[in-house]
Write a structure and sequence with these properties.
The structure holds two protein chains of two kinds.
Chain A lengths: L1 H18 L5 H8 L8 H21 L20 H17 L3 H8 L4 H17 L26
Chain B lengths: L11 H6 L3 H22 L5 H10 L7 H16 L10 H17 L4 H10 L3 H24 L3
Helix pairs in contact in B: 6-7
Classes of the chains: A mainly alpha, B mainly alpha.
């Protein structure tokens, strides 16, 4: 069951990326190009995604376990750390250079082409370089708190 | 196989938003639904960089749901195919960009999906800060590179 729901979630997510056109870097760059020919499409996509996901998060919030009985891996919601700030800025730089973020990158890799392959090779190397420590409490092997002192233990 | 939105630039609504409005909204709703399913059933945040990063380091046999999720993510593209992607930079620049995206989302604990969609849906101030930073820096980067051009 856990695999089935994970598969369904992945298919919904990937289908949404495709339908919204956000697997095409040109559409993403058009959103980022605020001082040029700005195209707000990505804004509508993010707003709709948040509007649908928010009720699900609200439903999940009162629960300790998911509908399938898994202890929910709640991420830290409040600590603004140097890792968060610097990491997000570095990500923004790469996103702006390419118009590609991790989800669309993997989708683009489905059709093997040099540009997507180069991006994904870099992304995997970057993730591995950053990830000598846990990436996030939410997706680490143990979903409990406890690994908050990892890569970004020092608070701002 | 459907036509890439960028190809149908002639339509008035497309010219305004870049992609027909219904596709932006319906696509976003599907992304939100995927994130909703993953938190409600699997108890996990649908952050692609986090899931990929953990999958890369996972011991064989543990937490296989990540690989299944990632397989599902690419399935629609494999079955339907989208239009030809249009890149604004060459392969070496894209490799460097990928490195920055991987490292940045690694130490920043999330990307557009984990912070931008799930974190904001979870009313997380931490994710809001991350999202404002990466969108601002990305916009600034496009502003600067528009002026000089990318290799």
């Amino acid at each position: 069951m856990k695999f089935l729901s994970a598969l369904a979630a992945g298919v919904l997510f990937g289908g949404g990326l495709l339908l919204s056109g956000m697997t095409n870097p040109a559409n993403v760059v058009a959103f980022l190009d605020v001082t040029g020919h700005w195209k707000p499409a990505l804004l509508f996509t993010m707003a709709a995604a948040v509007a649908v996901a928010a009720p699900a998060y609200l439903l999940a919030h009162g629960r300790e376990r998911s509908l399938l009985g898994v202890v929910i891996g709640w991420p830290d919601r409040f600590s603004i750390t140097w890792g968060l700030v610097v990491g997000s800025a570095i990500f923004g730089l790469g996103w702006g250079l390419s118009g590609v973020c991790p989800g669309p990158a993997l989708v683009l890799l489905a059709r093997p082409q040099l540009p997507a392959a180069m991006f994904c090779a870099g992304m995997v190397a970057g993730l591995l370089a950053a990830g000598a420590k846990p990436v996030s409490a939410a997706n680490a092997e143990t979903p409990a708190a406890g690994d908050r002192t990892g890569s970004e233990g020092r608070a701002l | 196989m459907w036509v890439s939105p960028i190809d149908s630039e002639g339509a008035a609504v497309t010219a305004f938003a870049g992609v027909p409005l219904w596709r932006s909204l319906a696509g976003g709703a599907l992304i939100g639904a995927g994130a909703g399913v993953l938190i409600l059933f699997n108890g996990r945040v649908a952050g692609i960089s986090g899931i990929l990063g953990s999958a890369l380091r996972a011991r064989i046999g543990t937490e296989g749901w990540r690989l299944v999720f990632l397989a599902g993510l690419v399935l629609p593209e494999l079955l339907l195919g989208s239009g030809q992607p249009v890149f604004g930079a060459g392969p070496w620049t894209l490799g460097l960009a990928g490195l920055l995206v991987g490292y940045g989302t690694g130490i920043g604990s999330g990307c557009t999906s984990g912070h931008g969609v799930c974190g904001i849906a979870n009313l997380s101030p931490r994710s809001l800060v991350a999202t404002v930073i990466f969108i601002s820096v990305a916009m600034l980067t496009v502003r600067v590179t528009r002026g000089i051009g990318l290799p």
